[in-house]
Amino acid sequence: MFFLGLPYLYLTGILHFFSKPLLLDFGIFFFPTILFSAIKNRDMSLILYIPHFYFMRFLACFVFLKGFFSGFMSEEKDYSWDTQRFVIK
Question: Which of 17, 31, 46, 66 is a Cys-bridge partner for 38, taking CB atoms 3.0 to 4.6 Å apart?
């Protein structure tokens, strides 16, 4: 669903704003690390996993935000701790 909005973001120029942090992350942190790992392990196929990494990062962020909004921002106000299982009989 995110990719459906890419043409709109490109036409309005907002995509250029969001591309700078992604390029900084890729150029400074991710690509040198994956290149060093590929050379050290003598396995150049590690470079092929670059799209998978960003897909998994997007998926992890989505799961975190969904859990955050459902857990902390929900309308349910039940702040009690169920301690009935610790009752001594």
Answer: 46
Sign of CA dihedral 82, 86, 87, 89: positive
Q: Are 46 and 38 in contact (CB under 8 A)?
A: yes
- Say which residue the tokens 């700078």 belong to: 20
CA 23 → CA 4, 17, 35, distances in Å? 21, 11, 16
Region of poorest pLDDT, from 46-50, 65-69, 84-88 = 84-88
CA quadruple 73, 56, 19, 14: dihedral sign:
negative
pTM for the complete prediction? 0.52
